[in-house]
């Protein structure tokens, strides 16, 4: 027995509606991106970015605040974009802070080496 058009039409209609509704579903809120951005800002602050990379850290905090505001207004895509920008700025602040601290430590070690060389050269005489 062959299926009639009416028997095929109902499952086909259901499949089309289901795929259409799935396509209309919005992406979930960017809570993960916001959490990652908050952690990045805290990591930068813990690396003394307030002292060594204040402009970068302030840009990260500003973007994070804007992302939180966008999320509360239901602007998920703006919130996602701003959270990613905040995380990037915080990572930059962290890197700049670590670079400054590492450079200061390197300079200190070079000074110590120079002093030791001077002592050794003076002690050989």
Topology (elements, then pairings):
Layout: H1 5-24, H2 31-46, H3 49-52, H4 54-72, H5 76-123
Helix pairs in contact: 2-4, 2-5, 4-5
Share in helix:
over 70%
Q: Can you count the helices? A: 5
Overall strand count: 0
Radius of gyration: 29 Å
Brief description of this entry?
It is built from five helices and no strands.
Molecular structure report:
With 125 residues, this protein is mostly helical. The protein has a domain at 30-97. Helix content is 86%, strand content 0%. The chain has 5 helices and no strands. The chain has helices spanning 5-24, 31-46, 49-52, 54-72, 76-123. It is rod-shaped and about 75 Å long.
Which labels suit this protein?
single chain; 125 residues; 5 helices; 86% helix; rod-shaped; DUF4398 domain-containing protein; DUF4398; signal
């Amino acid at each position: 027995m062959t299926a009639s058009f009416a028997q095929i039409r109902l499952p086909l209609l259901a499949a089309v509606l289901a795929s259409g509704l799935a396509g209309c579903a919005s992406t979930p809120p960017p809570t993960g991106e916001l959490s990652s951005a908050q952690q990045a800002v805290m990591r930068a602050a813990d690396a003394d970015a307030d002292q060594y990379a204040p402009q970068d850290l302030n840009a990260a905090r500003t973007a994070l605040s804007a992302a939180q505001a966008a999320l509360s207004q239901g602007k998920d895509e703006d919130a996602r974009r701003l959270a990613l920008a905040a995380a990037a700025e915080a990572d930059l602040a962290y890197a700049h802070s670590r670079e400054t601290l590492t450079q200061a430590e390197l300079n200190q070690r070079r000074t110590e080496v120079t002093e030791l060389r001077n002592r050794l050269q003076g002690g050989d005489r």
